[in-house]
Amino acid sequence: MKKITALAIAFSMTVLTLCGCNVTVNNNTGENATTGMANPWRDCTEEEAYKYAPNGFSAPDGATDVHWSMMLPDNDPKRENDMMVQMKFDLDGISYCAREQASPGEEVTDISGMYYEWQDTEDVTLANWAGGNMKAQIKSFANSDESAKLCMWFDIETGYSYSLSCSGDGDAAKNVDIKSVAEAIYDPKKQIGANAPEIPETCPEEATDEFLAKVADENAPNVDISGCDTFTQIVDKKLEKGMGYANEKIGDTDVLLVSSGTYDNLDQNMAAIDAQIFMYTDDAIVEVGKVVCGGTAYPLAVKDGNLYVGSNHWLCKYTLENGKLKTVAKAVVEFNESGYESYYYESADEEVNLYDTVKTQEQFENLYAEIETATVINFATVGGTSAKLPPYQYPGPELFYTVVYQYLVDELAKNYPAADVSIPCPIIVAEDESNKDDIRIWGDFWMFNYDLRGDTLECKSGGSYPGCIHVKDVLDDPRGYVVTDFEIVGDGSDFGPTAKKIFGKYYDKFMKIQSDDKKRDKVRAQIIANYAVDNNLDIKAFKDYGWDPVKLPEENIDSFYGFND
Length: 565
What we know:
This protein is α+β, with helices and mostly antiparallel strands. It has helices at 4-19, 46-52, 178-184, 209-219, 231-238, 358-373, 399-412, 495-503, 507-514, 517-534; strands at 23-25, 32-34, 41-43, 64-71, 84-91, 94-102, 120-126, 134-142, 146-155, 160-169, 244-250, 253-259, 263-264, 270-271, 274-280, 285-292, 301-303, 306-310, 314-321, 324-335, 341-347, 352-355, 375-376, 380-381, 421-432, 439-453, 456-473, 481-488, 541-543, 550-551.
């Protein structure tokens, strides 16, 4: 028999016998047994397998005795993303084994676990897979005792390797049409993009010019410039402490940008995320428009006379025309609850509106690449600000969360313009405390910055930082714990892939939580209520721009934290 497996087993048993490694003899039965060799495979459901191996397969019509399992490499929880999924089934009297696993590189990898001296290799193209263009290899072995076949392929678009194998006594597998079976296990419902959102024909509502203008009008300054004949007079007479201003050129026009605040962009610039923009006419100063960014990751920037305003999911490029801001180009990406994205792009120059085409994604990525080379506008800050409220401190009983909440305040609040108080709002997805040297907390971590107006906290800025915080239990540190790392989900087209990588088996739960605005507001209100009571403050509500105030609930410091229950 020309089977390498048999030789390997014989050699291994010889070595074990000679070395006495991990082999014991049962004196009652005389049978050899091995110890300390944990089985890396475990049974699972088809749904669980799909979470770790998207773009997967299903049992073909007529299959029986279908069994799913998965293997965690080295039984290492940190290697969840390398999970191998396996489906065994019987079809027409033959037993098959299909496998899938994420693989590095760009070539076919044999993950079948079969070790025959293959006699024949055939290159084929599989129907269904990759739109009918999937290249695959079929390997065959046969002798007088047994026969085996293997089909394996690699999807370069997704980075997953696949194998389908069968074997049997005599000629059982010799005449199997394994290519047809490989095509039959293809499941279109499990392919990436199968659950993508429906493709609308127009720009998503949250990125239309009208909606962005409404948000900018609600968030950017509203400076009354009456009585001012020059930009200098606006700055000297109208701007309050903490506001920012900058002189730039948009198109061919010199303008003054006035922001509600500034922040250190850590590149020797004091940046801003909103602006009311003014220009000179022949006999007066007029407002040309207002803009607001989605967060401090995208400060206002200029390049070649264009103004760039962006967020994680949309980016606009403006110029000035006839005394008003004009959209030169706009790129948008939308994600549904399954994390699938659709792209939208429009351009005044090309007079095209594109949605969800290859060109659209390319234009989206090109526009985001432009802002990387644009110059962040350096705003001068008027005077300074003084905090009216005590800084946020976690009021709960758990030392563990004291460290986590303080880390969020220290690391995230500094990215925003100064406000009266910065309050974190972590929405916990899952926790794993099995390893005290690497406690992991998955969540959608928010930071909100407020100014106090009467008995209401008005939100000035904020942002979401979904990801996984790593914490270490340190006995010799007075805090008890330290944060060692914070993995944050990427922006734009990187959102889906990085979210799946970081959240792993908790990805679906994260996407559901991230889209639940009501739950977030409920958690946010409770955190603020606890802060107010802990500091003896008469705060009764919080308010976002353009929305009605949200009334605060009763204090619940003792049992609220952790999973925000």
